[in-house]
Request: fold
Amino acid sequence: MPKGRFIVVEGGEGAGKSTMIAEIVSYLREHGVPDSAIVKTREPGGTPIAEDIRKILKDVRTDDRLCAESELLLMYAARAQLVQTVIIPALEAGQYVVGDRHDLSTLAYQGGGRGISRQLIKSIRDAVLGDFYPDLTILMDLDPAVGLARAGKRGDLDRFEKEQLDFFVRVRNTFLSEYEAHRDRISLVRADRDIETVRADIRQILESKCIAG
Ligand code: T5A
Reply:
C-alpha cells in the first residue's frame, strides 16, 4: 500500500494552479518535509515519454486534427506512464506528490468539453488506474473568461486555449458537478479572489486534511 500522499490541483485555464502548487510546496517545507520527499508532476507530461505526448496534445495543427477519442487515449497513455514510473514509486517511498492536474481534468475536458461519454472515460480510467485515486484534490474554480484572460497574457495559445468560451463553460460545469458528487475527496477554492486570500484558503485545506500535520 502506498505510504505517501498524492495531492492534486485541478481547474480551468489560468485558474492559478501553478501558483498554488508553489504554495503547497512551501507549506510542506514549513512542516518539515525535505525537498527530497516532494515530487511535483504535471499532466499531461511528467516523464520523457509523457512530455512527448503532451507536445502532440498541445500542438496547434490544421492538417491532421486530433479526434476526441485519440485525445482521450493519449491523455491516458501519458497518465499511465506517469503513474507507473513516477507517482506510485514516489508514494511507495513515502514521498509527497503534488500534481498539476490528474484524471478529473479528463472528465472535465474530454467529457464535458469534447462530449465523450462518461461511460467510455470511466472504462478506460478503470482499466488504466484501477482503484488508484489522489488523497486530496483541490479544485480551483474560476469564471473561464477570467481564466483565459489571465492565461492569454502569456502569449501564444495552445490547441486547448484556442477553444471557444462555451467549451470552457462545459469544462467548468463538469468540474463543479464532480465536486458536488465527491465532496469527501475534492475541496473547492474560489479562485476569483486576490492571490493572498486564495493562498490562505489552500493552507486552511491542507491543515484541515492533516497534510504533513
Ligand atoms: N488537459 C489536461 C485535458 O484536456 N485533459 C486532461 O486529462 C489533462 C490532464 C494542459 C492542457 O491540457 C488539458 C487542459 C489544459 O488545456 P497546461 O499548460 O498545463 O495545459 O495548462 P493549465 O493547466 O491551464 O495551466 P495554466 O498555466 O494556464 O494555468 P494555471 O497553472 O492554473 O495558472 P497560473 O498559476 O499559471 O496563473 C496564471 C496567471 O494568473 C495569475 C498568475 O500570476 C499568472 O500570471 N494569477 C492570479 N491573478 C489574479 N488573482 C489570482 N488569484 C491569481 N492566481 C494566479
Q: What stands out?
A: The chain has a mean pLDDT of 95.
